Amino acid sequence: MADFARRNIIKAVVPAAGLGTRFLPATKATPKEMLPVVDKPAIQYVVEEAVAAGLHDVLIITGRSKRSIEDHFDRAYELEEALAAKDDKERLALVRESSELAYVHYVRQGEPRGLGHAVLCAAQHVGDEPCAVLLGDDMIDPRDPLLNRMIEVRQRHGGSVLALMEVSPDEVSRYGCAAITPTDDGDVVRVTDLVEKPPRGEEPSRWIIIGRYVVDPAVFGVLRETPPGRGGEIQLTDALKVLAERGPGEGGPVHGVLFRGRRYDTGDKVDYLRTVVQFASDREDLGPEFLPWLREFLADREDGVR
Ligand code: UTP
Asked: Are 132 and 55 in contact (CB under 8 A)?
């Protein structure tokens, strides 16, 4: 294994300071990362995913109107005492779970100046180490592990690693898209270029960037030099595009893991609804009651009953 790749990844950065305008009005005073997927906020699934990949040091990038995120990962003494007094062990364990999950730290992004700027806010905490970045509203199904594979790829090739997902030609223009070449690993590609929201017909592939990254610390230096791009925001994609042109030891190269599992963008209303229905249906304690209702509801809809 090359020297530049040897350092273990122990830190995760979870940007959660965005405005969440796609989910207004719910996100006027509530962070979109706190919207519940059944009975747990989306960001808790994201922190659980980091911990499952062995990353126990989690830095959440927060901002104004995001205080409830800090409260969620902290102790809730009054609630705990009330549940303890009732000897409600099951709910007490649920309440404590999020505060015992990881070593959670916070840094505030003064203004939401883009995902690249949010990641740059992590520079001091992360230091000269590679780290994982997990977007706080983007969930990967725990049954389809991705982050461990991305960490393995970083350890083999160094540089940075993106998660890529194939979408239909109609959808590519809504996302950041990667130009790729194959490697000798079937699920790993070399990323040669990145294009943010390519016009229809000009997309370099159908593989889009989703919300998981393993980044070399060189990304921070590049982000400091990255001017605001699309939407006047400092884009992480622009910095990764620079790293994709660099060699080993300078923050490059950039590889992509081709992800074929289930991913949910909970910051999008329709995807959020799909996520809740899927997770509720799969739950042993809720599915048996929920699914027959759902079937009946859909059958009635088809018959025009309600
Ligand atoms: P999105 O691209 O979903 O942007 O951010 P957004 O502004 O939050 O949402 P919409 O489009 O207005 O609905 C992806 C992730 O990056 C974080 C968000 O919190 C989300 O987890 N982010 C984005 C920041 O932390 N800071 C920013 O300045 C922008």
From this structure: yes
Cα-to-centroid distance, 288 and ligand 1 (Å): 35
Tens of pLDDT, residue by residue over 115-128, are 999 999 999 999 99
Regarding the beta carbon of 17 and ligand 1, being less than 6 Å apart is answered yes
> Can you give the pLDDT at residue 6?
52
Q: Which domain holds residue 273?
A: 268-306
Distance (angstroms) between ligand 1 centre and the Cα of 220 equals 19
Q: What is the largest CA-CA distance in the chain?
A: 66
What is the 203 CA–ligand 1 centroid distance (Å)?
23
pTM value is 0.95
Token reading at 71 = 């409260």
Q: Same domain for 87 and 176? A: yes
Does the beta carbon of 18 sit less than 6 angstroms from any atom of ligand 1?
yes
Q: Could you tell me if 253 and 286 lie in one domain?
A: no
Poorest-pLDDT segment among 9-13, 83-87, 154-158, 248-252: 248-252
Q: How many domains does the chain have?
A: 2
Determine whether the shortest distance from the Cβ of 130 to ligand 1 is under 6 A: no
Q: For residue 20, report the distance from its CA to the centre of ligand 1, in Å.
A: 6
Q: How far apart are CA 253 and CA 80, in angstroms?
A: 48
Query: What does each C-alpha distance from 135 to 114, 215, 264, 265 come to in angstroms?
Result: 12, 13, 11, 10
Task: State whether the beta carbon of 40 lies less than 6 angstroms from ligand 1.
Answer: no
Residues 269-278: tens digit of each pLDDT? 999 999 999 9
Closest by Cα among 89, 101, 105, 129 to 215: 129
Q: What is the pLDDT of residues 24-37, one digit of tens each?
A: 999 999 999 999 99
Q: What's the chain's average pLDDT? A: 94
Residues 100, 26 share a domain:
yes
Q: Report the share of the chain in percent with pLDDT over 90.
A: 87
Whether residues 280 and 187 share a domain: the answer is no
Nearest atom of ligand 1 to the alpha carbon of 15:
25
